[in-house]
Design brief:
By secondary structure, the protein is an all-alpha fold. The protein is built from eleven helices and no strands. Helix 2 (24-40) packs across helix 8 (122-132), helix 3 runs parallel beside helix 8 (122-132) and helix 8 (122-132) crosses helix 11 (164-181).
Length: 189
């Protein structure tokens, strides 16, 4: 049926709401990231679009206390998804979203993150761009404002701050790639 939402995306939204329902700001952020990913995914094949939308809904489920293990939310979320039978591709997108590999190094969790395949290319880029142009309350933000906000929230001694030099450069490179592919993209002020 044309226009019907893919079952994978419906399942992702449902799981995100179940796990993050008691974290309303995190859920609002995830919902806004999913909406932003839809704005940016035109031209993708159906399976790419579905994987992107599902990963957008699920990218922060690792913050849910019920599945928290290492405290590194990309890894915790991906491990949970793998354990309950999600597609390897969605697990990998969640594991590596938004330059997680750089922060994993600061957490000394690179070997654990290597349990998942690191996808590169337009789908991974759009997921990262969507996440990094939506603030913690679901509001639009520029990449630079999002990075500054993250560093303020996590603090100067955090793994995010320790990984900032490499990760910040990577996030800006992703933004450049997405915006070059999509010159019509609406940039946040």
């Amino acid at each position: 049926m044309e226009g019907a939402e893919a079952p994978l995306v419906v399942a992702a939204r449902t799981l995100s709401r179940e796990l993050l329902g008691h974290l309303p700001l995190r859920l609002r952020h995830s919902s806004a990231v999913a909406a932003r990913s839809i704005e940016l995914n035109d031209g993708f094949a159906a399976d790419d679009s579905e994987a992107l939308s599902a990963a957008a809904w699920l990218h922060d489920i690792g913050y849910a206390p019920t599945i928290r293990d290492t405290g590194f939310h990309p890894l915790d979320g991906a491990r949970y998804l793998l354990a309950v039978g999600w597609l390897d591709r969605v697990c990998g997108l969640v594991a590596y979203h938004s330059g997680a590999i750089f922060v994993a190094s600061a957490w000394d969790l690179v070997d654990e993150l290597a349990e998942f395949e690191c996808e590169t290319g337009p789908v991974a880029d759009v997921l990262t761009y969507a996440d990094q142009t939506v603030g913690p309350r679901g509001q639009p933000m520029t990449i630079d404002h999002r990075i500054a906000d993250m560093l303020r929230r996590h603090g100067p001694a955090s793994p995010n701050a320790r990984a900032h030099e490499q990760r910040g450069r990577y996030l800006r490179e992703v933004a450049d790639r997405v915006e070059a592919r999509r010159p019509d993209v609406i940039r946040c002020p």
